[in-house]
Write a structure and sequence with these properties.
Layout: E1 4-6, E2 9-12, E3 16-19, E4 22-26, E5 29-31, E6 34-37, E7 41-44, E8 48-52, E9 55-57, E10 60-61, E11 104-106, E12 111-115, E13 118-120, E14 123-126, E15 130-132, E16 135-139, E17 142-144, E18 147-151, E19 155-158, E20 161-162, E21 165-166, E22 173-176, E23 179-181, E24 184-185, E25 192-195, E26 199-201
Parallel strand pairs: 1-5, 2-6, 3-7, 4-8, 5-9, 6-10, 7-11, 8-12, 9-13, 11-15, 12-16, 13-17, 14-18, 15-19, 16-22, 17-23, 18-24, 19-25, 22-26
Antiparallel strand pairs: 20-21
């Protein structure tokens, strides 16, 4: 409650990684955080998260992320290895499989409810602000100037299919009474991109 997170970096979940957790986030601000997936939050494994009256701005999911803390044990002068040497024990090799969710990533068996919150200027490859594969409810919130390079300028909704038949329940995605302004994508879904996803947008 009433907390600010700024300039934090991680592999997944730049600020918070939730597994088998119940948490409520209230009046919290997240600014300039980065991760490979879920620049602010990564939610999975039966976690139930509620977000109320919070602000997510200028966060970024990076496809190829090498944390700047790679040399925190030795200085560059002390390190006998070249930066691109695969034997370098001080180099974090974190490449590929990233760039999803400029703010919030909802993964396997995750569940999130968002109300009265704002997402500004977040960006990613897919899902400029949110990338969801499970349960998502968003109400009375704003999405402004979020950007995705490939799909879902603000939100990417990914369902599950078998032989081209959607196998999700109708209440998996509820997007109600929200405002989307000047969100952008180079390819598909300037505000919302849906693939095999089910739910309702009103």
């Amino acid at each position: 409650i009433n907390t600010t997170f700024t300039q934090i970096t991680a592999i997944n979940g730049g600020c918070n990684y939730y597994a088998a957790t119940k948490t409520t986030i209230i009046n919290t601000t997240y600014t300039n955080n980065t991760a490979r997936n879920g620049a602010v939050e990564y939610i999975e494994n039966l976690s139930v998260i509620k977000v109320q009256n919070s602000l997510y701005q200028y966060n970024q999911a990076l496809e190829n992320l090498t944390p700047t803390i790679k040399q925190d044990i030795k200085t560059d002068e002390d390190n006998p290895f070249k930066e691109d040497d695969p034997q370098n024990p001080y180099e974090y090799d974190i490449y590929g499989n990233g760039g999803y969710a400029g703010a919030i990533y909802v993964g396997n068996l995750g569940n999130i409810t968002i109300t009265n919150s704002t997402f500004n200027y977040n960006n990613a490859l897919c899902g400029g602000a949110i990338y969801n594969t499970q349960h998502l409810s968003i109400k009375n919130s704003e999405f402004n100037y979020n950007f995705a390079q490939i799909e879902g300028g603000a939100i990417y909704l990914e369902g599950q299919s078998k032989d081209n038949i959607t196998i999700k329940l109708l209440d998996y995605n509820i997007i109600e009474n929200n405002t989307f302004t000047n969100n952008e994508v180079y390819s598909n879904g300037g505000a919302i991109y849906e693939e095999y996803a089910t739910g309702k947008i009103t």
